[in-house]
Amino acid sequence: MRSSKFKQLCAMGFGLGPGLLLSFVLAAVLGREASDRVILLLSMSILGTAIVTQAAEAFAVAELSKYLQHGIKATEALKKTLAKLAIPSAVGVIAVAVITFGSFRISGAFINLDAVWLAIIALSVYLSCVISPLAALLIVAGKSYIPLGTQGFRYLAVIIAVVILPQLGAAAVLFFLLGDVLRAIVLFKAQQATVVEFDASEAQPSQQQEHQSGAGSLYQQFSSNGITQASVLVERAAISSGPTGAITYYEIADKIAYILIQAAYAFGILPAMAAWAKLSGAANLRGAYAQFHRDMRKLLMYCAVLAIPGAVAAFVISEQTSLPQGVQDIGLYAAVLLIAALPITYVFGAMRFLVMLGGQRYFIPVAIVSIVIMVVVGFSLFSVLGVVGMLLARLLSRTVTALLYWGAIRKLVAAEPAEAA
């Protein structure tokens, strides 16, 4: 157990560390102008990963597990899963790339040449989608530390490139693609032994009727994730119109909460997905829900132990008038965002579990409710409380989202025939 936790900790460090360091390295080595350009180009990766890649990986875990539980060999299951997500992922990545380039081109932040660099990053994002079945197989096999730990390759490659060749400028994004190619090679090598393990096992195929999701469910996930990202843009747009320094203080506070959320994902959600996928893949929805409920309750308890005292400490800091105003603002923002990390953590787990249950149809309606709350409540509170009002709207929005997903999961599980349990 300790060895497993240590592997997950190392994987989290390798997977997330380079991404957190990248902006600091770019600013220090390239200077503000060149750094800004590379960071803007990498917005394609951030949006593409949030909207398309994460959905593709969750889809791959669910589908692959169902194939394996129904006696299909691992190699064939990988091919079938890839065949299902290849075209929808391409459509999703192209749509994100076009919207990203168009937005920044209209604003004057991009020149025509940047379309080439953006296309390279889009290709990298698509490669991540294509290899998601490999990552999914490792997750199902209980080796989630491998796909997690290799996520940082893309950023590490860029860091090494700009440190050695700072004159690269925007061309450094070529190494972003190179990092993902290296990750693909590592995942391919890692899954070869796992394929042999699965194919050599004597597990009996499930007798339950096989249910597979179609491409339409992937588009539902993409659309939902896109709406969620739009709510983030609403939040940032409002905050950027606030006092000088507000967006910077918000970013710092957001990173504090982000670390907690990512730790919860790495240590709680990602390792647990194997059990959820196995049970739901065998059409044992009640058993899968019982496992999901136990795992998430335990995870949220651990998160609360960190988030609540952290929020209290941050609020106390915000009340210390002897500290600089910026430090006080960061403390106040972090206090709200740390509490908001609790429902966000549940949403992270619930969305992945809903994919396994075939409940993607709930994603878009819930996302619409979420963004309506962000717009209506957020701007109303922003006019009265400023930045913290918008952050309180995020807390309310994510709490409502968590409750709606909880209700959707219970509804799907309750609909399962008793004899299938």
Automatic annotation (TrEMBL):
High-level lineage: Bacteria, Bacillati, Actinomycetota, Actinomycetes, Mycobacteriales
UniProt-recorded name of the protein: Uncharacterized protein
Annotated organism of origin: Corynebacterium pelargi
